[in-house]
Amino acid sequence: MIGSKNPYITDKILGGETMKKFLAIALALALCLGIFAGCQEGTNDPTNGNTPGGTDLTGTYDVTLWVSELDGVAALTQQQIDAFEAANPGIIINASIEGVSEANAASQVLADVASAPDIYCFAQDQLARLVQASALAAPGKGAAATIKEANDAGSVAAGTVGGTLYAYPLTSDNGYYLYYNTEIISEEDAKDLATIVAKCEANGVKFRFALENAWYTASFFFATGCHTNWTTNEKGQFVSVDDTFNSAEGLVAMKGMQILAKSSCYDSDADTFTDAGAIVTGIWNANAAAEHFGDNLGATKLPSFTVDGETYQLGSYSGNKLMGVKPQQDPKKAAVLSLLAQFLTNEKCQLERYEQFQWGPSNLDAQASESVQANVSLAALAAQNAHATPQGQIAGVFWDNANALGAVAKSAETEADLQTGLDNYTAAVNAYISLTPEQREAFTVIGGIKDTGWGTDFEMIQDPEGTWTSKDAFDLAVGTEFKVRQGMDWKVAFGNNTDNADKNNTNRGNYVSEVEGKFYIQLVYDADAGTAVINLIPAE
Predict the structure, then answer these.
(1) Cα 159–chain centre separation
(2) Helix or strand run (H / E) with residue 325
(3) What is the dihedral of CA 223, 227, 228, 233, to 10 degrees?
(4) Tell me, what DSSP letter sits at residue 492?
(5) What is the biggest distance separating any 2 CA atoms in the chain, rounded to whole angstroms?
(6) Is 366 part of a structural domain of the chain?
(7) CATH assignment of the domain containing 442
(8) What was the pLDDT predicted at 53?
(9) Domain count, the chain
(10) Are residues 239 and 283 in the same domain?
(11) What is the per-residue pLDDT for 54?
């Protein structure tokens, strides 16, 4: 927190004309010597390199910011902006700060880039779409080098597209790692998957790892060097993929999963701690882990596994929050915004957010601080992040079908069974990539219908424009759940009508049938408004 020992307040002791002259001289020296954050080699390089070195940035700037809607974040951000002004005398920021969820911010920016705030925070999986929409001003060369050096590799990768850094790392705390019972599993034991399994079996406790959830399943494939990289078009639609899950390395990953999946201690529920001797989860379960394990709480990176004499370190998906700067017509304002973004994401500001909100820092020095290292969960996450892959934009077909790979590993009796699972996964991915433009615009029904277990998309027909009706009528029981989605993806998906009425809600709940009978499912879609209504039409 910014307090009485704030080193920045000492610049406020001068007054009157003396202050004005001092500020002018200090600012000129700062610009020439590159003491502003991000300025290197004698050039003012906080933006795209279009602001000449030595440019006078003194002045008053109206700046709009979107930060987390969490109570207290806006107030802390204002305090940090005050500190920025103290550290950069002559620059005055008239800040208008609004709380907007990082999950929704990017969608609102993309809806109207011109009206978007000057600085906004967003989840890393929206980066590519924001770059495509020219909604981000990349830091200049010198600033980018400083940012890359200061932050962990995963957060830098999360802010990078095509080799260019476009955003400022803000957090590095959405990932998973291992909690374990130190009474039965030693620190050395926790390094090896098979050893953890053996210890849990011997003590009659569970090893909980959500291997039937693609977000976790991917850790085995990342361990063996596999990847899944998706490309979108200008509309944000997925049009191609570079995926190597179905490969010799992918088969090794499947065998690695079997070390746990075939064990009597395996349980795929990683949000329940009952009987757990080890569990793979994230910071959101830190309190539950502390309560369950008590004095025997251990936390560390994920273990390694060994197949055919080769050892592989389990990877993971990582998630980051990023800060973006909107492109500006005024090069001076662009420079100031970049300086401000660098300041708001620096070590001190990240530590302040950690201390107040427990946000995991991406800044390496902040991660190494005593207070963060004392947090066993964040220390474990930081260790795992060295082996993590930032989660970019990924088509829904990946999640739908990679989910099944863990179940295949559990049930497979032969290597051929494992290969069949990989082949089915690839077939689904290829079928999705082969969708026609018309199919990418079309809506389908998916859910707990006809015992498909959310594994089948059912065709819908558009008539009239904007009204989509299922080709078939379905027998629905009270409580049957489903969604209607576009292009067989989750990017545009509608569920319950309350959520459907909010264009900014990107995590809509399922539609739950309140009646029993045979019905056609109808979607009335307002593409301009981004809203929809689902109706059940009785079959005659």
Answers:
(1) 11
(2) strand 321-325
(3) 140
(4) S
(5) 87
(6) no
(7) 2.60.40.3620
(8) 52
(9) 3
(10) yes
(11) 57
